[in-house]
Amino acid sequence: MPSHKLTKLELQVLEALWEKGACSVREIQDFFPESARPAYTTVQTTVYRLERKKVLRCVKRISNANIFEAAISRTDAQRRLVDELLALFGRGKAKLVMAHLVEAGELTLADVQEAERALRKSSGKDGRK
Predict the structure, then answer these.
(1) Which of 69, 101, 111, 114 is the S-S candidate for 106 at Cβ 3.0 to 4.6 Å?
(2) What SS3 class is residue 64?
């Protein structure tokens, strides 16, 4: 995935594409709730900025409307955000994030068990790698 950071509005535009599939700038704008809908030109500028960042691409043109689709998956974008968050804390400081999630009630026992399975698998301790 490209190393460019994504803004909240850029993530919202990508969310529209992940939810709806390929669509025009107008369709992306219509995805926003009416009470918080950005101007058409704001969405258009954001779309073209995302295209330059190579996180979305123009897939076809219908009349004078370009049709765009996400070039990265939701999972890739989420992983990038988590990596950026962890980078703020510094190497080896993920336990601070984990402690906060536990204190906030956002981390369940099932989440911990899933993380343990992933850790065992990535380190090859369970014989599979």
Answers:
(1) 101
(2) coil
